[in-house]
Structures are given as C-alpha cells and as structure tokens.
Amino acid sequence: MNGKILVTGGTGYIGSHTVVELLNAGYEVEILDNLFNSKIEVLDRIDRITGKKPKFYKADLLDRVALDDIFANTKYDSVIHFAGLKAVGESVQKPLEYYKNNVDGTINLLQSMQEHGVKKIIFSSSATVYGVQESPEYVETMTTGGQLSNPYGRTKYFIEEIMKDLCTADPEFQVALLRYFNPIGAHPSGLLGEDPNGIPNNLMPIVMQVARGQREKLGVYGNDYPTKDGTCRRDYIHVVDLAKGHMAMLDHMQPGVSIFNLGSGEPNSVMEIIAAFEKASGKELPYEVVARRAGDLPEFWANPAKAKAELSWQTELTIDDAMKDTLNFISHESKQ
Ligand code: UD1
C-alpha cells in the first residue's frame, strides 16, 4: 500500500505530470495550489487520464493558518514541493516578491510539516543552483550558490541551504533536493502540458506560441557562442521522465539530505530544438537570430550517473518524443 502525498504546486506543469505518475503508481494524492500560474481544469484532465480526481486545496503557502488546517486534517507520509514563482526576468524586477513567496512559503511549509510530524519532502530544485562552473557537465558534488545570475535562482539555492540546516537540527527529516535541467514536452494524452499564464520566457513555450500563430517568430538569443553551431546548449528532459524521477526518489528516501541531478546527460542546441520541432510538425518554424540574453551560459548539462546508480532512474524519452507530445498538446488545446 503506497502512502499519502501532499503535492504543492500540483496543478502546475511539472506538478501535474508528477501527480499523474503518483496516481498511476497507487499513491493517494492531495494537491495544494494557489492557481497563480495554473488552471483548475487541470484536475479534470488528471481525472480523465487516471480515473482519479485528487482532493484539492486552493491555498497559498504564505497562509500558515490554512497550511496548519491541511496538515491537522490529514496524516501525510510525504510532501512533494513544486509551488513557487519561476519567471527569471520578473525575479530581477521583483526580488522581494520572489524571496517572500519562495523562501517564506517554504519555511511555512516546513514549520507546519515539522509541527504535524511529517518529515519527508522532495523539493523541486534547479540546475540553476550550480551557477557558473569550470566544467559544463554538472555533478552533484560541485559547489553551489556561486555567481547566480538572478533572484529566482538564489531562492532555489537558499531553500536548499535551509533544508540542509533543518536536517542537521532535526535528524528525523528526510529531504531530497532534485535539481532539474530543462523540462520540455507534454503528457502523451495531449491533456497536460506547459501552459503558463502571462508572457512566457522559456524556449519551448515561445516555440509553442510561434506554432500556434500567436507570435511571428522565435528570437534565437545569439549564435556566436563557443558551441558546435554557435547557439546555447541545454539538457532538455521530457517532463514525463522528470515526473518518474520523483517516483524513483520516493522509493529511496532516507534520513538527511539526498541530492540528485535529473537530466538526460545529452545537451541540445537551440538550432537542434528548432530542427526537431520542424521535423515533428513538418513545417518551418520562423526564427531570427537576435542579441544574446544577459546571464545565459553557453552550455551545461547533467551528469546523471548518481540518479542512475542509486535511484535506478534514467531518461527514456527523446527530444523527438517531446516535440511530438508538445504538438499533440497544442492540437488538443485548439479543440477545447
Ligand atoms: C532558464 C533560467 C534558469 C531557470 C530555467 C527554468 C536564465 C538565464 N536561466 O534556463 O535559471 O532555472 O530557465 O525556468 O534565464 N532561448 C532562445 N530564445 C528564447 C528563449 C530561449 O534562444 O526566446 C534559448 C536560451 O538562450 C537558452 C535556451 O533557449 O539557450 C533555453 O532557454 P530557457 O528555456 O529560458 O532555459 P535556460 O536559459 O536554460
């Protein structure tokens, strides 16, 4: 019998895909989300895919009273914590909002968990915590927190440090820090995918806008980087593989802090992403090379060996799968 999990941010992009995997694996799932960057309809989509509709709390992590009510009501085995603000550019403009939401929100969550005796948490961290390194292949043992280019990235780093301190103070805590590389793709059903409110800033949501005709062309941020084709290279990971990484982690929780990279280990350039999208759609994707974006690193990717050895997890889906699933998600959207 699998346990009961509270998923914060469970109606969001990565959260919703993880909820599907949890339900399919037999976990009981409840979702907490403030719907700031997601839609309530996601719950029906999850139901259509899994035949199960998780209990939903529309609540904010800054509302400690609401959190205490939720934890007083139900005895959870673990929490998976996705909720947070994630727009890099906006975080530069509104640092206090980012620190308050992400850092204070997480402290509230951890305090409420501790007071109610829930001591297992998986945190949605990011490769961004590595900052600038000498080698572009990131390994979990590298130092973190150096030369981070924005407040969003620093919230991830600070939360990691707070969770480490908590484990030192309370040895019953079991914390997993999962450092995601670049999640892309959608659920193969076409019912779930990346659907941010407002103006997107990540590559795939912009590609999707161009494909839908909402944007004339993609601006490629620089083609004079010291890489194979001059465009930046990233480790893109299918969101379903990423969701499955959380299942593997749940089976391997242990006291103290565990840290894992979740990536494929294979970088792709922006031009390779454009080519893969064109191959999947059979259409040209209009683009134009524009100036570099401040803070972009030429290339980095995961060394995923630790997750493979200790969690028996590795990516199975390809960039082509991600493009096909993204197109399927777009075509479902237009039929809604
Ligand atoms: C960005 C953030 C990172 C954050 C991650 C997830 C920066 C510098 N980094 O990572 O901190 O953890 O998002 O939200 O913002 N690209 C274009 N044109 C576009 C958009 C992107 O060419 O319109 C290129 C970028 O230069 C980059 C690649 O596509 O090479 C991926 O960009 P993006 O999706 O924003 O992810 P990261 O920059 O890797």
- Helical content class: 40-55%
Strand content: 15-25%
Bound molecules: uridine-diphosphate-N-acetylglucosamine
What structural class should be given to the helix and strand makeup?
alpha/beta
Strand order of the largest sheet: 3-2-1-4-5-7-12
Distance between the termini: 36 Å
Summarize model confidence as the mean pLDDT: 96
3D architecture notes:
The chain contains 11 helices and 15 strands. It has helices at residues 13-24, 42-50, 64-73, 88-93, 95-115, 151-169, 203-212, 239-250, 270-281, 305-311, 319-335; strands spanning 4-8, 28-33, 55-58, 78-81, 120-126, 137-138, 174-180, 182-184, 218-221, 233-234, 236-238, 256-262, 268-269, 287-290, 301-302. It has 336 residues and is an alpha/beta fold. It binds uridine-diphosphate-N-acetylglucosamine (UD1).
